[in-house]
Each structure stands twice: as structure tokens, then as C-alpha cells.
């Protein structure tokens, strides 16, 4: 329709009015003159233009010029992915002599054949987007200026009617803009030149969207608008009926009188986890409106917002104060919530339990009640208040884990050494989110052979030995409560000890590792370490009672050691109980605190000192 109107009025497309036209000339002028990246590709031009329509929706045009600077670049760009809804205007190889070879195009891929160093690839594509619902006229647009390739020029232009207001925010670097008005439209442009490539090879670093320089423009003024909208949307679903009341009576056959909030919340949580199955249908594809709690109960199936809504309505009947919370989990880019928009991918519950604000994850049937969950830890969330007359101001919050059960990993081992044989009886105690794994691990559906093979691989990797598991048994705690799950493993290692004369030497046989060399594998870092990408536990405790034959004694024992870096702590101590019995105790606090790039050298030293401390040699004869 827009094209028809332009044809009738004999007007030029508004994007074309400001888009760079001499693409082939730019390719010729810029190639062989710019910096080269390790991936063999240099972006000569990245132009992104968005035309926002007054009636809602927008048209986008993206134009890219990529220079192939080495054989690695041929592998990078021989196949180029496009969205099925993109209208590909140009997909060409521009040869050094100026000849043009079209790419071979399918619905979701462009294949470039006979690529060579010195070629320039030109890709230009357009797409239309329309919204629906309350925010059908609103827009949230981001442009990313640098990437894994060096960039010669990156341009972002937004075209809007003059009377439309929107917010602008830069990420990682302030980007200035220019404005001009043409025929009742405002054209705002941001431009950066000569940007270095980003290094995404560093382990445990931020993802592309959080690492790049970006500009976001957004027409939704406040998070309160989104919270009010979602509150209105969900209020009609949050109703009790006979099905819900029946479930409530099953949970509380004797009522709730005299019960603490935490006790009531735990009973509701356990009922939901045992009676309703989580459906992992993508949050956005499944729509925003939760189904009625009675439907969730009847079908025994629901996604994150359905399970959260069910908890809230049952909580209301139990006189609990609870709310649904829209969340952007840690595995998605925090940058996407830099301004108010609808980029949430999850829903959890916030409950006031005995005066403490507590966030509850509802989607894991093996997860103990009130466990801290890595995906939600310090993630951004929007609390939804469904009370009609509420005057509480709503803003984006950081999901707190202060009142959740932490992930604690405790190990107690008795190790008897007799010649070439090392016999272990190891007991492990797990709390928090890690207990979910072991609740599943010890299900009747899992076989003993599966469990033995799994433990042999895990312990064998940590000890760097071939181990033989004799027995694994669950001791206690396979439930959804916050008490530890305990299990015992009996295994042995047949390995001839090293000798120096009559002295036998060995490493300390720890079966858990709070720190590994992987987290400090490089000399320097350019990006932060996002610690939740590396660590699953909040603390470790391991105790080993090491026994050698009675006619032998320990003669080489390392010194006790205590280390600390900010909130990270490490200690190892040795207690000689008898000449042939040595007790080794190691503790480590591993909070999920991110490590800034400028803190890396200090953190690296701390980790290396901790690893060296537990790699010390014991000697006996």
C-alpha cells in the first residue's frame, strides 16, 4: 500500500532518499585500504535504516559490504543466512575487475560460489514488521555498530513522523547523532567509523549484544506502562473457581490457620511441581496471556506464566502476597532491556514470605523449593501487580537471591591406600539448584549402570585416573525440600604410586574442583568474566580422611593455606590424626560475582594460587 501511494504521488521511497547509493564505488574505494581481521573479513559498510510508519509498524533496510581479506573469510561467508521473511534486494559478489556474480538464493540462505580473496560481497535486504495489541504503534529498535569483523563505517538511521517522541540510549559508548527534517519526517542518524573487531573467543564473556556498541530507540516511555498493560491482560485469568478450590483443599485439608507463610508457600509449590508438567514452549510464541489456573490444573500442563499464575491464585486463597514477575534470563542479553520494551522470555513468582521478599522458579519439577537459580540470578525483572487500585510505582528490578537456598556442595571421603589400590567411600551432600540434577539422577527410571558410568566419567575426569565404581546409593533427601540430598559412592583406583627412593608421593584425591585453569586460561582479558557461565555452586566443602598402611607414616605434608579475593575465599588445612592418618579439609566460597576485565590479573593470581595449593604433593613411607 505504501508503494502504491508513492507511485500515485510520484514520490521517492523515504529510505532511498537517505541511503547510500554508490555502493559499488564505495567497495572500490575502500577495499585493500582498511584493517584486516583474524576472521578474514572486513565490513566496508554496515547501513541500517528503519522507517517508522505513523499508523504503526516499520520498514527496515540493511546494506552490507564485506571484503574477503584471507582464505578464512571465504569459509566465513560462502554461506550467508537470511530470514525467510526478508526480501533480498541484492546478493552479489563484486570481483576486483568490477564484474558482478549473483549469489544463489534459497528461502533462508545465500550461497556464494567461487569466492576469492579480494572479492567484496554486497548484501541488501528489506523487511516489514507489524505489531498488534496495546503497543501496536510502539517500536523498540537497536543497531549494533561493531562486530567480530573490523568495520570501516557503520550507520543507523531512524525515520519517524515529526510528532512522534522516542527515547535514545547508547550502550558501551556514547554515539552522537545528527538530525534533519524532510517533508514532515524526522531523520536521525548515528554513525561510527574505523571500529576494531570484537574478540568473542574469550571463555565466559558477554554475548554479542551486550559486548557491542549499540544505540537503542524506543517509544514506550516507562516500565510502568508495560506493567499496567500486563496487569490488565492477566487479571481476567487470575480467577478462582471450583477446580482451584478443590486443589486448595487437597493442599490444605485442615486449612491454613497457624501456618507460617513459608510453610504455606512450600506446600503450594510442591503440589504444583508434582501435579503439573512444565511445557517449554517459547514464551513469546505461546502468547502473553496465561491460561486460567483451572485449565492448568485440568490439563496438568502449563508454561512458565501458567505455573506462576497458578501459584499466585492458590497463594491468594492462602492469604499470601505474591506476584508474577516477567524476567529476561541471564542467558539472554541484558542490553535488550536497556529501555522499556517487551523482550522478556520467562516468568517467575515473587512472594512475601514471613516478611522476606523471595523469588520462586516454577518450571523444574526436580528443583527444591526456594532454590537460587542461575538463570534468574541478578537478572532483570518486572513485577506485575494485579490489584486494581494499586498505586505502587513499578520499575525494572534486579532479581535478588538473598532469601533463597544457595547451591552448596559438600563432600566427605574416606580413602584407604594399600599398595597400588586406593579405595574410596565418598559421601556428597548437595543443596539448591544442584539438588535438582540429583533428584533426577536418582529417579527409578535411571539404571544403576547409567549412574555408575556417569560417576566414573565425572570422578575420573577430576582425578585424572581410571576409576571403577562398585556401588552408588542414595542416603537421604530425594525430595523438593531445602534439606541436602545425600548419596554415597564406593569406588577404587588401581594406580601404582610414584616413588622417590622409599618415599611414596601422591596428589590429594579431591573429587570436586571449585577452580580450574579454564577460567584463567589467558594471560590478559578484554572482556568481563560472567561467573554464572562458569560456576554452578555458591560454595564447596570437602573433607578427606586419608589412611595408609599402619607400618607407614606421612612425612611430607604441605602447609595450611588461606586465600581471598573480594568475596571469593579459599582455605586448605591438614591435621595429622595418627602417623598413618591425615585429615584434609578444603573450603571455597564461589559467589557468582562477575570479574571485570581490569580485575582479571588479581583474580587470576588468586585462582592460580588456589589450584597450586591443592596440587601439592603428599609423601609417606
Content of β-strand: 25-35%
Q: Major sheet: order of its strands?
A: 5-4-8-2-1-10-13-12
**Proportion of residues in helical segments:** 10-25%
Q: What gross morphology would you assign?
A: globular
The first-to-last residue Cα distance is: 90 Å
Major sheet summary line: 8 strands, mixed
Number of helices: 13
Helix-strand category = alpha+beta
Average pLDDT works out at 93
Q: List segments where confidence is low: pLDDT < 50 over at least 5 consecutive residues.
A: none
Q: What key phrases describe this protein's structure?
A:
eight-stranded mixed beta sheet; single chain; alpha+beta; 13 helices; 621 residues
How would the blueprint of this fold be written?
Elements: H1 2-9, H2 14-18, H3 23-30, E1 41-52, E2 58-68, H4 71-77, E3 79-81, E4 87-94, E5 100-102, E6 104-105, E7 109-111, E8 120-129, E9 140-144, E10 151-161, E11 167-171, E12 177-182, E13 185-195, H5 208-211, E14 214-218, H6 223-235, H7 242-251, H8 261-275, E15 277-278, H9 293-299, E16 301-302, H10 304-317, E17 321-328, E18 346-353, E19 356-360, E20 380-384, E21 397-398, E22 408-418, E23 421-430, H11 433-441, H12 448-463, E24 467-476, E25 485-494, E26 498-500, E27 503-507, E28 539-547, E29 554-556, E30 561-565, E31 568-578, E32 581-589, H13 600-614, E33 617-620
Parallel strand pairs: 1-10, 15-16, 22-28
Antiparallel strand pairs: 1-2, 2-8, 3-7, 4-5, 4-8, 6-7, 9-14, 10-13, 11-14, 12-13, 17-18, 17-20, 18-19, 20-21, 22-23, 23-25, 24-25, 26-27, 27-33, 28-32, 29-33, 30-31, 31-32
Helix pairs in contact: 7-9, 8-10, 9-10
Amino acid at each position: 500500500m505504501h508503494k502504491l501511494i508513492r507511485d500515485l504521488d510520484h514520490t521517492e521511497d523515504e529510505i532511498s532518499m537517505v541511503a547510500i547509493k554508490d555502493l559499488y564505488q564505495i567497495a572500490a574505494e575502500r577495499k585493500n585500504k582498511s584493517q584486516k581481521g583474524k576472521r578474514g573479513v572486513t565490513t566496508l559498510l554496515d547501513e541500517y535504516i528503519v522507517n517508522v510508519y505513523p499508523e504503526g509498524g516499520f520498514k527496515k533496510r540493511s546494506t552490507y559490504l564485506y571484503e574477503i581479506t584471507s582464505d578464512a573469510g571465504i569459509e566465513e561467508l560462502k554461506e550467508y543466512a537470511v530470514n525467510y521473511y526478508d526480501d533480498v534486494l541484492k546478493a552479489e559478489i563484486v570481483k576486483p575487475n568490477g564484474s558482478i556474480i549473483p549469489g544463489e538464493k534459497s528461502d533462508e540462505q545465500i550461497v556464494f560460489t567461487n569466492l576469492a580473496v579480494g572479492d567484496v560481497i554486497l548484501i541488501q535486504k528489506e523487511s516489514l514488521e507489524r505489531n498488534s495489541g496495546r503497543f501496536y504503534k510502539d517500536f523498540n529498535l537497536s543497531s549494533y555498530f561493531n562486530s567480530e569483523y573490523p568495520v570501516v563505517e557503520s550507520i543507523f538511521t531512524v525515520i519517524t513522523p515529526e510528532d512522534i517522541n522516542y527515547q535514545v540510549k547508547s550502550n558501551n559508548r556514547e554515539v552522537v547523532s545528527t538530525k534533519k527534517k524532510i517533508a514532515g519526517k524526522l531523520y536521525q542518524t548515528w554513525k561510527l567509523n574505523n571500529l576494531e573487531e570484537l574478540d568473542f573467543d574469550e571463555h565466559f564473556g558477554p554475548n554479542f549484544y551486550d559486548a557491542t556498541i549499540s544505540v537503542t530507540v524506543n517509544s514506550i516511555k516507562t516500565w510502568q506502562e508495560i506493567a499496567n498493560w500486563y496487569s490488565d491482560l492477566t487479571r481476567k485469568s487470575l480467577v478462582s473457581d471450583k477446580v482451584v478450590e478443590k486443589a486448595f483443599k487437597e493442599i490444605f485439608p485442615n486449612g491454613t490457620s497457624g501456618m507460617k507463610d513459608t510453610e504455606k508457600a512450600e506446600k503450594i509449590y510442591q503440589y504444583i511441581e508434582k501435579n503439573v508438567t512444565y511445557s517449554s514452549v517459547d514464551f513469546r510464541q505461546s502468547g502473553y496471556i496465561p491460561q486460567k489456573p483451572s485449565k492448568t490444573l485440568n490439563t496438568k500442563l502449563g508454561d512458565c506464566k501458567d505455573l506462576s499464575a497458578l501459584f499466585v491464585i492458590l497463594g491468594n486463597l492462602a492469604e499470601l502476597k505474591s506476584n508474577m514477575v516477567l524476567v529476561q534470563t541471564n542467558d539472554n542479553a541484558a542490553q535488550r532491556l536497556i529501555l522499556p520494551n517487551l523482550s522478556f522470555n520467562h516468568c517467575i513468582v515473587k512472594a512475601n514470605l514471613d516478611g522476606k521478599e523471595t523469588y520462586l522458579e516454577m518450571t523444574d519439577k526436580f528443583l527444591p523449593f526456594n532454590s537460587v537459580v542461575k538463570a534468574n540470578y541478578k537478572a532483570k525483572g518486572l513485577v506485575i501487580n494485579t490489584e486494581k487500585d494499586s498505586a505502587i510505582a513499578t520499575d525494572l528490578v534486579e532479581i535478588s537471591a538473598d532469601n533463597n537456598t544457595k547451591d552448596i556442595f559438600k563432600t566427605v571421603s574416606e580413602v584407604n591406600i594399600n599398595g597400588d589400590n586406593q579405595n574410596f567411600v565418598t559421601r556428597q551432600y548437595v543443596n539448591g539448584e544442584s539438588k535438582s540434577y540429583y533428584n533426577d539422577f536418582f529417579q527409578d527410571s535411571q539404571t544403576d549402570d547409567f549412574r555408575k558410568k556417569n560417576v566414573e566419567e565425572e570422578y575420573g575426569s577430576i582425578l585424572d585416573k581410571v576409576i571403577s565404581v562398585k556401588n552408588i546409593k542414595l542416603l537421604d533427601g530425594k525430595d523438593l525440600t531445602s534439606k541436602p540430598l545425600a548419596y554415597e559412592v564406593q569406588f577404587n583406583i588401581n594406580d601404582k604410586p610414584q616413588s622417590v627412593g622409599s618415599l611414596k608421593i601422591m596428589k590429594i584425591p579431591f573429587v570436586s574442583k571449585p577452580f580450574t585453569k579454564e577460567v584463567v586460561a589467558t594471560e590478559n582479558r578484554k572482556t568481563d568474566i560472567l561467573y554464572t557461565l562458569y560456576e554452578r555452586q555458591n560454595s564447596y566443602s570437602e573433607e578427606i580422611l586419608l589412611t595408609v598402611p599402619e607400618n607407614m607414616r606421612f612425612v611430607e605434608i604441605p602447609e595450611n593455606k588461606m586465600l581471598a579475593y573480594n568475596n571469593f575465599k579459599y582455605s586448605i588445612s591438614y591435621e595429622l590424626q595418627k602417623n598413618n592418618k591425615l585429615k584434609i579439609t578444603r573450603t571455597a566460597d564461589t559467589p557468582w560475582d562477575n570479574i571485570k576485565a581490569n580485575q582479571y590479573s588479581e583474580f587470576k593470581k588468586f585462582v592460580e594460587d588456589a589450584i597450586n595449593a591443592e596440587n601439592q604433593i603428599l609423601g609417606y613411607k
